[in-house]
Each structure stands twice: as C-alpha cells, then as structure tokens.
Amino acid sequence: MRVIAALLVIALVCQSAMAVTSKSQAKLMMEKINSKMEKSPLGRALKGMVTIATKLGYEYQDLYDAFAALKNQLLENLDNENSLFEYQSALHNNTVSQLNALISNYTNQINDGEAQLNDLQNSLQIYQVNLENAQQALYYNIETRDIYQESQKILQAYYDFATAEFSNADQVIGVAIEKLQEAQSQTNNYIFIHFDFLAIK
C-alpha cells in the first residue's frame, strides 16, 4: 500500500509539473521533483526510468501519459484490493462469527455435560449411601436373626425342661392320688370295721 501511495504521489507531481507553462517554473518544479525522488529508492528508480526514456527519445508527454495510465491502473488495483479486502473482511467476520457460534455451542454442551456429570455423581453418592444403609440394615437383620434363633433355642430348652418337669410332676401327682385313694380306702374300711364292732357290743 505504501508503494502504491508513493507512485500516486509521484504521478500527481509529474502531472502538476507538466501543467506549468513557464520554463523557469517548470525548471523549479523539476528540481523539487528530483529532490523528492532522490530521497527514496522508488523515486530514484523512477528518475532513472525517466532519464532512460528521454535518452531513448520519449517526450515528457509520453511519460506523463504513461504515468497517468499507471496511476489509473494503480487506482483500479487499489479498488480491487479494497473490494478484495472488504470481501476477505466479510469472509473473516463470517468465519469468526461461525467459530464463535461453534465455541458457544461447544461451551454450552460442555456445561450441560458437566451438569449431567455432577447430577450423576450426586446420584452415585446417594446410591452409595443407600447401599451402605442397606448393608447396615442387613447386618442388623442378620444379627437380629441370630439373636432370635438363639432365643428360640433357649425357649425350646425351657419348654423341654418344663415339659419334663410337668411329666415328672404328673407322675408324682398320680402316685399321690393313688396313695390318697388307698388311704381313703383304708380309712373307710377302718370306719366300717369300727361301726361293726360298736354294733356287736
């Protein structure tokens, strides 16, 4: 872009120089142009081109026309570059917008995934707590079952012992009843004999 601007400036300077009618003014203008052109590599190159062209017989008008054509071509190239720059800028902006949209979409997906992962982690912790509680309850149930079974054994032993004692007591009571009946029978016999004896007297 700086090269294009420099060429346009030089072309405009040449155009101004050619428009001067006075020889003294033209000479002064050419000195200024030469001074400016000597200060840059591009200016020195153009000055060399002009020198070579004049030595080959080209008129300043021809050089002016050539610079005018060059200026028009440079302006056209500049317009094309501006159009291309605008197109590339629009394409760049569109690409950036699409990338930002993709980044935003992926960011949202990542956030959603992290939220789901946190929910799953919380659910896993809840399941783990429930599992530990269930295992603890199962342990208590097993312990309770063991205590119940041991109590059943103790109760069965007491029952067996009570049954045996009851059987023994029943036998003792049976013997006592027999003895009582025997005693009553003997008493009755004694009373009967006693009354008979009294009656005889």
From TrEMBL:
Q: Keyword Coiled coil: yes or no?
A: yes
Its protein name is: Granule lattice protein
Which segments does the entry list as coiled coil?
A: 96-137
Q: Which organism is it from?
A: Tetrahymena thermophila (strain SB210)
Record key words, sorted = Coiled coil, Signal
Signal peptide positions are 1-19
Q: Which domain of life, per UniProt?
A: Eukaryota
